[in-house]
Amino acid sequence: MKSLLLLPLLTLACVAQTLDIGSRRELMVDHYLIDRLEGAELRPQVPIDRGVAIPFDLPHEGAFSGYVSVVTLPEGTFRAYYRALPSAGQDGSDMEATAYAESADGVHWTKPENNIVLQHAAPVTHNFSVFYDYKPGVPEDERWKGIGGTNKEGLVRFVSADGVKWRKLMGDQRMLPPHEGYRYDSQNLIFWSEAEQQYLCYFRNFKEVEGMGRVRWISRATSPDFINWTEEGEMSFRSTDGGMAPTEHLYTNQTGAYMRAPHIYVSIAARFLPGRQVLTEIEAKAVGVDPGYFKDISEAIFMTTRGGTVYDRTFLEGYVRPGLGYENWTSRTNYPALNVIQTGPTEMSFFVQRGYGQPAHHLSRYSLRLDGFGSLHAGYTGGEMVTKPFRFTGSELEINYATSAAGSIRFELQDETGRVLTGYSLEDSREIIGDEISRVVSWSGGTSVADLAGKTVRLRVAMKDADLFSLCFK
């Protein structure tokens, strides 16, 4: 394989401006850090279906429950909030309520005897979305926050001290105003961004697209205090070549800060394909789906954003395909829940609605390796990555990686022009073989990179039959 070190130094030096990554963890989900790849690629990982997590089996829940928010509490326990609705009806009707389930580990879920926390609050209960506010200094009786509403009502704010008893905030003043067109008729979400030091709202909008008509879209708004909001406009979707990704209906966006890299917002969204019908009427009757809910299909996709109004669509493929069984190919099933949670020392999980509009409608759990949404991958013949120039803080380089028995990873540090730094060459790098969530990289002189902290460097990664999931200087 031709070495990237043979590339002209001047070319390397002019590719990109210097990044400042500090001690942040960088995931292999976009091209933010990457300057050049040769024989390597960014590859999506395959979530593992762990089965039913929460059945929507109470009388007030049922086939049309949905718009799930999974919340991590400070003590490390979890709650899932969702619309409870046993039968189809008009959006925003008084039939809809908000219910919840709870879990000590994110794997096993139970429901309190009365799990309804909000009812007779239409249209807010149509799509009430909940988060726990970790912003320092927030009044304790406003730690829990939620929003809901439709285009006619606008988005309404609620707060709570315990996530069970809720009260409306700001009376009739709307967080985002009513709208004459279709808007908000999906799960609109909010969270406090540690990275941006402001509240963020990603909400449903529509965009007129030539040849497609009105397409389900995502817009963003920001607030310093949860009271005053500024709409920043429609999101755009960037592909790996820097152009725009294909236009698709995205029904729910489910954007949230990843817990181990909160400057990266992960979105496991619902791709909706209206009119793309798989089941015949006979097949739909056999699975017991409501007659109005089998003439479209949907699945989960993966994208990320680092703030602003751009999503990165690094992986265009389906992230969670509908899968085996006619019951998974009905309309509005396979919608992901909001948020990814850590469910073990090496595992994270997210949740997906399965069997929407059917008697056995439920929420399934999917697991991934911690940090493992995607990876930098090289096959048996080997591959390399060279980063853009960057500065870091810290004294060691930590990686999350996996190799085959025959595979390996080595690391090299260069100056901003691509010249190898003494003591940090590939030849000095100790070969890494194995599978670990946390491994400190070492060279012949040891693990310390403290003498390079604050300086502009590049990182070269040489791999064979291996995956790199994340890296950080600490």
Task: Describe the structure using short key phrases.
globular, single chain, 474 residues, eight-stranded antiparallel sheet, 2 helices, four-stranded antiparallel sheet, 44% strand, mainly beta, 32 strands
Low-pLDDT residue intervals, each spanning 5 or more residues: 1-15
Distance between the termini: 32 Å
Provide a count of the helices.
Answer: 2
Kindly estimate the percentage of residues that lie in beta strands according to DSSP: 35-45%
> Radius of gyration over alpha carbons?
24 Å
Outline, from the CA principal axes? globular
Summarize model confidence as the mean pLDDT: 95
Q: What assembly state would you assign to the polypeptide chains in this entry?
A: single chain
Largest sheet: 8 strands, antiparallel
The number of E-state strands comes to: 32
The helix content, as a percent range, equals under 10%
The secondary structure category is: mainly beta
